[in-house]
Amino acid sequence: MNKYLQTDPWCIIEEGFHPNKQLVSESIFSLGNGHIGQRANFEEYYSGETMLGSYIAGIYFPERAERGNWKNGYSDANDKIVNAPNWTGISVRLNDDRLDLAEWDVQNFRRVLNMREGFLERTFEAISSKGHRIQVSVKRFLSMAETEIGAISYSVKSLNYEGRISFLPLIDGDVKNKHTNYNEQFWNMLQTKTQQDVSHIWVQTRRMDFHVCGALTYVLYKNNEQLKVNPTKIEKEKVAGFSVGTDVRIGDTVCLNKYVAIISSLNHPREELTERACNLALAAKEKGWNQLFEEHSAVWAEKWLQSDIIIDSDLEAQQAIRFSIFQLNQTYNGDDSRLNISPKGFTGEKYAGATRWDTEATCIPFYLCTSPQNVAKNLLLYRFRHLPKAIQNAQKFGFINGAALFPIATFNGVESYNEWETTFEEVHRNGIIAFAISNYIRYTGDENYLAEAGLKVLIGISRFWAQRVNLSYEKKKFVILGVTGPNTYENNVNNNWFTNYIAVWTLQYTIECVEKVKQSNFRAFEDLSQDINFANDEIFLWKDIIENMYLPENKKLGIILQQDGFLDKTLTNAAEIPETQRPINQHWTWDRILRSSFIKQADVVQGLYFFEENFDKDTIRKNFEFYEPLTVHESSLSPCIHSIVASAVGNKQKAYELYLRTARLDLDDYNNDVADGLHITSMAGTWLTIVQGFGGMRVKDGKLHFNPQIPEKWNAFAFNILFRGNQLNIRVEKQKVILHNIKGEGIDLYVNAKIIHIKAESQVEFVI
Amino acid sequence: MNKYLQTDPWCIIEEGFHPNKQLVSESIFSLGNGHIGQRANFEEYYSGETMLGSYIAGIYFPERAERGNWKNGYSDANDKIVNAPNWTGISVRLNDDRLDLAEWDVQNFRRVLNMREGFLERTFEAISSKGHRIQVSVKRFLSMAETEIGAISYSVKSLNYEGRISFLPLIDGDVKNKHTNYNEQFWNMLQTKTQQDVSHIWVQTRRMDFHVCGALTYVLYKNNEQLKVNPTKIEKEKVAGFSVGTDVRIGDTVCLNKYVAIISSLNHPREELTERACNLALAAKEKGWNQLFEEHSAVWAEKWLQSDIIIDSDLEAQQAIRFSIFQLNQTYNGDDSRLNISPKGFTGEKYAGATRWDTEATCIPFYLCTSPQNVAKNLLLYRFRHLPKAIQNAQKFGFINGAALFPIATFNGVESYNEWETTFEEVHRNGIIAFAISNYIRYTGDENYLAEAGLKVLIGISRFWAQRVNLSYEKKKFVILGVTGPNTYENNVNNNWFTNYIAVWTLQYTIECVEKVKQSNFRAFEDLSQDINFANDEIFLWKDIIENMYLPENKKLGIILQQDGFLDKTLTNAAEIPETQRPINQHWTWDRILRSSFIKQADVVQGLYFFEENFDKDTIRKNFEFYEPLTVHESSLSPCIHSIVASAVGNKQKAYELYLRTARLDLDDYNNDVADGLHITSMAGTWLTIVQGFGGMRVKDGKLHFNPQIPEKWNAFAFNILFRGNQLNIRVEKQKVILHNIKGEGIDLYVNAKIIHIKAESQVEFVI
């Protein structure tokens, strides 16, 4: 626990400057708008510890692959997110005295991330070694309305200084990745140019030929009056911008508003990039700060209406859940199916910024409930677009006939991660990608998606499973050998139950979907069958596998077995691991972790969470009680799932205890790793813990169900969800639930298995 | 198969120049004397493809470790053999016409490795673009008698040239490793100096502080008469030597004899290195070529007396087995317990030149039978010297109380290889190191070795096994989880039979040895117990493990199981793999290999080979017949073991077929990898195939046993062995065995279980 921030319902607040926490703050106070992400680096020069981070969604670089112990099938390039030109820089000088918070005395420092309106504000006083004293106020946002625009308002008031104050608003292409490649440079400079009003740099990734152009313009004010200035143009090899200034007297305030456009060849023709960027920056200036900000904060207002959670009487929990919702909405806005959500979002470079199965496991349920339908759908289409590459990928592994294996980590559908036990063996990702399709259809009812895209993906994955199983010589059952399951503290195991189960489930669900499409849209089915050479015969084998798949269990203990041989371990509870040896992945050698009984993250429990309808509550409880004590939750995706299942089996205390492990993971830097970036995808898990866990929300047969329970510490909690045209607010109090149908038609839903009708724009109370 | 060399009983011969095979030839024609190794690089300048390789035993460099997917417990440095200054260079000029076989016309090229006397000879005619024609003859050797001395005689006869011929005998420190580290340089130059008669370079490894000095001197002859010349001294930053020459007429022969000393700080004080090297080189010159060579070839004569094998009527087999014996004796001579045998010896840089368990599995039996006792003993002492580091290594893995885990690859006892499934999980190496001790004592009868060193190693290893097992929750037996067995086409398996069995065997053998030392030398036992804090209580647990270890088997099939779950595989014979997909490790992804039934190398069969006395022949046969068809033998250490077991179960045809896969592996470059170096350790396996396989040699209760059988293609074969003071020659013919007691007392031995007495220096025939 590393708590240094203030608690507040809508804001994250750092009171007083914590230079030793600067890397952590840079992560936590990050801004983003789904297209651009920016760590909370200072605008002005800073000689202290910092990790610059400006990222553009969809722009990546094929890193030199590690060739240590090379295996056939490894990808040639490990794609990684690339640090883009830094658009935030505004150097500040009092004559030749350059502002630098690492060198100047800093007083009354306050940094605020305003989550309601989506901006970052910083105020402080600073005194230089020469005794110059200024009061500074900086505000910035990345527009959610115009996602190629960022704006910064940098205001300096002289407290004792008389003389010239200059600003250097810059855009800087001399950037490197932190987790870098032997100091490799990722960008070619194509142009840096500064005209009278606008300055830009145009760069190109050294491989992949992504082009990016950043353009900036500005307005300078003195005591709220706009100044006409004659700027010095800056046009260096890798940096472009201006130097502008004015003379001040004590008490004067000078303010520079910087308007930046960042655009890329993802969305614009390369040859028009510079012109468009400059025009966009100038148009933003023309529009002006206030209107830009109003449009931006209006988007946030709508987001909060759709997704806010209120926790009554627990301010820390309130702040934390809003932080999660805020960061998720900053990371992905669902308007582009080429984009996705990396575990760290745009807040750092760990996990290379690539997409993993976190998206399907936790993020899709979040966006399904809190955003218009197209948002989750675009996440599904992301995988659909990658289907041809997933088929190519499976071919590398020896699979044929359109079998698809999606990569463990990717930007463009090509595998970007090389570690055999992960890349080759964590094949359950394929099942989770299939499960997300069912999740989407279950929630939205949008069965058209199957014919449109989903069924092709399901068939590709089913074909993979049908070839990935083999008939056991000894068991005379189908088995799946040599996998790494969701619990990655096991490698290369046989018959991981989760994997075997989700394989069978995929086959079953695909057969159902084949029937559905056949019946609802025979023409589409015929076309699809011809397109991917699908024949009904395939289903015979699938049915054989469904009926004869081996699923490990121990009848005596009444539990599912995580994998073959699990009970050969010495069963030790995680509670017995000495504090000094935690987390075990930082203290133990890998072989010791592998042969221990300690489970990194939900595995059997993950399966019971996904497929709870197929198991009776007693089975779920027994397995939860068996596996939870063995689980060390050294993945941030784990406690949330365990918490939801604990709620489902009525273990309220455990549910809350596990919720606490996920709720403030980043704000309190539990694992000492926030400097590397935030755990964006596990934030969706936190949201699920409240809505599916405490709220007990499920969808069955097209209807919403709630089985709410409230943690003892809380007086009430409420969450907003979107469901098939209805905007709902569910408020859970100690004794009752208040269901508010904010927008949409009347709706039938279930609370504790009792059906309730809520008329349009009205609310119903239900005693619990 | 890439046959381009001539067949000959005592020589390896390349007729005609094969520049496209130069890398292969450089490996095959390598010279070594156990202390220095040298690939067959040309002396003169060569602009064609070449891989320079001069290696000094015991000198290594900590390479930058690959940090790809880092695991706790990985070694900081991957030690690797380092390419040492090249001592062979003799540049040859006809005025300004520099001899270069890549540029000149080459005729009548012939390269011969004379194995009987241990030298490399090369003769050819070469014509320059100017039409200058010369006849060249070069001979070189690395003295087996004075292991710091190398000598080269370089002779040039003018066929049509009149003018000056110059030689530049050099020693060159500007060398790099081929499998290198981002062009890292390994050597600091401390001094290059050329005096009147002798020239030297003195270098230091950039880490580890190994010092090496190479000194050279020379004599120049014209038409067999020594010339007095006034050399030009060469003394560059990294190169030292001379330029000498003389005028010739057509028919004249000029010859330069180069005498080199290579010494290192392993054996000499750093401050005396240059003086000693120069004196050694001068002393060699003083001694003269003929005497140096006589002393050298006398050592070879003795080696051949001890270790030769004759194969009658199969010239290819004859050549190949001598090549194996020759290379093994070039690689290790057993006079220094700090040295060992790397899989590639001194013929390349693959496997980094580090010691692996190949030494214990195949090399020790070879040296035991063909060299004085101290040679194998020094290989054991190598591990004994590393015991403290093996204990530290085990501590990294969480083991306590003096448990020892020897590294998978090492120079100095520290792990030098980082791959978790190998480094952390191939723990059977520990058992094989214990087994080698028993092998040594069984063969030599030298039980004193236990108190001297062996018992400490055995106890360290037994302590490891006692902690590495765990009691299975389900089986109520001891199990060993998460290992990679000898068959490395499986990773992280549970209960690899070989590992479980050798663990039990180690414990049992250690208990026996504790008793032996206690009885034979109680004082030593007391001292040792105190020294390593050994208490008799430990044995109680060991006995419990011995009695209650789980050993996987399938009673229905009557076979031992390679590991838990082996029979979940689809059992497919290796014969069914299409040729285009072989070797599978070059065509299949790792996951596919892992879940296949294909076995890389002897695993259960390796165990049955080691412990055949504990199994009836029917069990061995059944298991051999089960596993052999599944085995792809993609390790060079595999077919030899299968061949021996095939002989033991009377499957003569299979035994010979498998022998053929190992016999000419390098000479015919079966796997297209000889350019990287020779398979030195598997050469010992080839030797075993003949002596233990066809010869059926075993030692039981201190007596030699033979169960000879002869491949159909052969008329006879004969091998020499040393056994407890006797020098024996065993000749196996179609109908009889002739046993010759060449040196030593009378001896009792068994042929086909019948006892035979052979008087001193006499022979006995035995009809079979």
- Counting copies of identical and different chains, the oligomeric state is homodimer
Q: In CATH terms, what is the architecture of the largest domain in chain A?
A: Alpha/alpha barrel
Give Rg of chain A in angstroms: 27 Å
Number of helices of chain A: 20
CATH topology of the largest domain in chain A: Glycosyltransferase
Basic shape of chain A: globular
- Helical/strand content category of chain A: alpha+beta
Most extensive chain-chain interface: A-B, 48 and 48 residues
The total tally of domains of chain A equals 2
Number of strands of chain A: 33
Quickly name the level 1 CATH class of the largest domain in chain A. Answer: Mainly Alpha
Instruction: Look at the structure and give the mean pLDDT of chain A.
Output: 96
Helical residues, percent of chain A: 25-40%
Main beta sheet of chain A? 10 strands, antiparallel
Q: What does this entry look like structurally?
A:
The structure is a homodimer of 768-residue chains. With 768 residues, chain A is an alpha+beta fold. Chain A has two domains: 11-62 and 79-304, Distorted Sandwich (Beta-galactosidase, Chain A, domain 5), CATH 2.70.98; 308-694, Glycosyltransferase, CATH 1.50.10. In chain A, the strands form eight sheets. In chain A, strands 1, 9, 10, 11, 12, 14, 15, 16, 17 and 20 form a ten-stranded antiparallel beta sheet that branches. A five-stranded antiparallel beta sheet of chain A has the order 8-7-13-19-18, with no helix packed on it. In chain A, strand 11 (133-142) and strand 12 (149-158) form a beta hairpin. In chain A, helix 18 packs antiparallel against helix 19. The interface between A and B is large, with 48 and 48 residues.
